[in-house]
Structure formats: structure tokens, C-alpha cells
Amino acid sequence: MRHRRTAVLGGSGFIGRYVVRRLAAQGEIVVVGCRHAEEAKFLQPMGNVGQIAVVNLSIGDEALLPAFLAGSDAVVNCVGILYERGAQTFDLVHHTGPARLARLAREAGIERFVHISALGADPRSRSAYARSKAAGEQAVRDAFPTASILRPSVVFGAEDQFFNRLAAMALISPVLPLIGGGHTRLQPVYVGDVADAVVRCLTDPAAAGRTYELGGPKIYTFRELVELLLAEIRRRRLLVDLPFAVAELQARLLSLLPTPPLTPDQVELLRHDNIVSAGAMTLETLGLTPTPLETILPTYLDRFRRGGWYDRPPR
Fold first, then answer.
1. Does 92 fall in a domain?
2. Is residue 103 part of a domain?
3. Domain span holding position 28
4. How far lies 193's CA from each of 47, 83, 102, 232, in Å?
5. Residue 279 belongs to a domain with what CATH number?
6. Do the domain assignments include residue 267?
7. Please, which residues have CB within 8 angstroms of residue 253's CB and are 6 or more apart in sequence?
8. Is position 139 within any domain?
9. How many domains does the chain have?
10. Beta strand pairing status for 112-116 and 74-77?
11. CA 19 – CA 37 distance, rounded (Å)
């Protein structure tokens, strides 16, 4: 019997690499599309020889996407950005790109399509990120009605950009700002659980056409997450409330940096809770048990306890 072939766009990213590992472990042939294929060769040892192929491709490469999809049984779109730079805009990456990918997948006779969006996607949001995520969901659904859409909250894991950045900041600064007083509620979800949800959506016919909101087993305020992190890396820091207006002003300056630690759009997102909606389909709906944050956090923040904040997170 032929092994199923799955195309994963953005497979070298934070969530994508976990998806690739899960798919390879169950014997699938995985073709990974990413913008820097040379830097993504670390994916290939996750499977047997020839099981994982990596090709240079972006979600905007309309001429190359048909060849990337050819022969595949399923497609997973893991592409996403946290801030805009040059041609990498929210509209392209989160909306028009996924719309094109879904259309081409349907035309290629692909059986299953999983699209990773974000909790808080809202066409009425003042955040360009949230609006583009909502537009992408609708466009994917229009082009590929049986697509499964996953909306994770803040995703944590060894390579995350949330706890790792906070911990690095805590090692060099005696003060940590709490935007909006740190009252925003978040429901961090483990990256491995998100990857497991992708696999379930690819294999469970009941997941076709459904949208799932993915959160961990516990809701925290932003302040509680910072306090948890400080306890884990064994540091004491002064926590200072930072009004949204002041945070937005600072973010405008920080957004000029090549890799901005904060943007005005992200400040806008923090004005609203990022938690699973009442009555939503969740990890539990897929038969998965959310992994507690406290179980995973110590496994990758130990390097900060040793002061090795400059080390790259493990792949």
C-alpha cells in the first residue's frame, strides 16, 4: 500500500517542525515547503531516509505551488508571521496566500486540508493581525469547504517566542513591564498538542469542515505567567504596570528594529483576552488531553537558570 503523502507549508517553523515529526513517526511521506530550505535540513533526520523532502518555497509562489502539491493526499498550512516586513505582509501570509493554497489544493484533488489560524481571529478587530487571520479562515473555507481550521492560543514549547523572549529579558533587565497592568488572560497551549490536533484532523473524518479553538488546561493572567517564569528561572524582578497608551508609544519605536520585540499591533492584541470561547470545539473534542504548562516549562527554561540566555533553543 502506498504511504500517504502530506505537504506541509511552513514546516520548518515552530509549529510546523512538530507537525512534520508527528507525520513522519506514523510513516507518512512529508514534503516541506519553506522559504529557507538550506536552514531546514534539520527536519530530515526526523524520518527515515527519503521520507522527508524539503523544498524552497513561499506561500506567495503561485507558479511553484502546483508542483509542491502534486501527488499529495493532504496539505497542512503552518505559515504565519507576528509582524510585517517588506513583502511579508499580514494580508499575503494570512489571507491571500492561504486562499490561493486552498484553491490549488482543491483543484489538485487533495483530500484533506488543515489550516492553522489563531485564537482571537476577528474581522472587526482593530488588530491587522487578527483581521488578516479571520480573512484567511473565510477564504480557506470558501475555497476548500471541508478544511479543518485550528485556532491556538499562545503556543509554548522549546522554540517559542513567548517565554524564551521574556526569560532573556529577565536576565538583563531589573524591571519587567506588565502591559495594561498584566490583566490580559491567556490560555497557553503546548506545541506538541497543536501538532497532535493537526494529525487528528487529517485522520478523523468528523473533523472535516470544523473549527477548533486550542488552549491549555488553565487560564492565566499575563502577570501570573511572568511570575511563573521568574520562579522557574529563579530570578526576582520588579514588575511595573505599563498603561496601554505608553506601551503603544514604546512599541512604535521598537517596531523600527529588524526583529521588533513588540509592535503596536501586538499591544492592541493584548487589550483582549486570548482564551477558548464557551461552547467551542477544543482539544478535548479531538480526544486529546491538554498538557499543563508547568510540566513543559522546566524542560527548556533550565538554560536561563544557568545564565545561558544567548544559547539557541534546541531543535
1. yes
2. yes
3. 5-155+189-216+275-290
4. 20, 25, 24, 22
5. 3.40.50.720
6. no
7. none
8. yes
9. 1
10. parallel
11. 17
8 Å CB contact between 242 and 146: no
Among 223, 261, 214, CA closest to 120 = 214
Identify the CA nearest to 98 among candidates 124, 72, 62, 146.
62
Q: Could you read off the pLDDT tens digit of each residue along the chain, which spans 315 residues?
A: 457 999 999 999 999 999 999 999 999 999 999 988 888 889 988 888 779 999 999 898 889 999 999 999 999 999 999 999 988 999 999 999 999 999 999 999 999 999 999 999 999 999 999 999 999 999 999 999 999 999 999 999 999 999 999 999 999 999 999 999 999 999 999 999 999 999 999 999 999 999 999 999 999 999 999 999 999 999 999 999 999 999 999 999 999 999 899 999 999 999 999 999 999 999 999 999 999 999 999 999 988 887 654 445 445
Collect all residues with Cβ–Cβ distance below 8 Å to 266 and sequence separation of at least 6: 82, 83, 129, 251
